[in-house]
Amino acid sequence: MSDLTLAVLAADRLESLAAFYAGHLALRPRFSKGSRWARRVLSGPGHEAWLLGWLPGQGTELHDHGGRGRPAAAAVAVVSGRLTEYTVRPGSFPTLARAELAPGGVATVDDRTVHAMRNDSDEAAVSLHVYSPGLDAMRTYLFDETGLAPSKIKRAGEDW
Fold this sequence. Notes:
Layout: H1 3-23, E1 37-44, E2 47-54, E3 73-80, E4 83-89, E5 95-101, E6 106-109, E7 115-118, E8 125-132, E9 137-144, E10 147-155
Antiparallel strand pairs: 1-2, 2-8, 3-6, 3-8, 4-5, 4-7, 9-10
């Protein structure tokens, strides 16, 4: 199989897992005024799932899922509320693509994508994130008209 075929199979698997887990939640999310709430809720062969609670205005910085050391692909399923995903589109003049995610919506990113998630709505949101392999770090970035610049590394369990 080609690398592209394997990547499509991996994205389909993550999307299916995220939708399944989101539809069968046993744990209720919490919400925190200081920042979004995140809790690892399960891990399985080659993946793990995190439940996140987002109040209006809360979001992530631009980030990848582990960088060069141990990058992870991901799928995000919106359980309730709405989230906006901002994805960096590389090029001579990098841009940010914007996508709205409604309840039941699932977005996937490969292991090289740099993106941010944000609750731009007026109501709380809940999402379920599946990473493969399990996520142990994220690199954050600054972004301007010249492109991306690495900012910091966040380890698993920190504010993400």
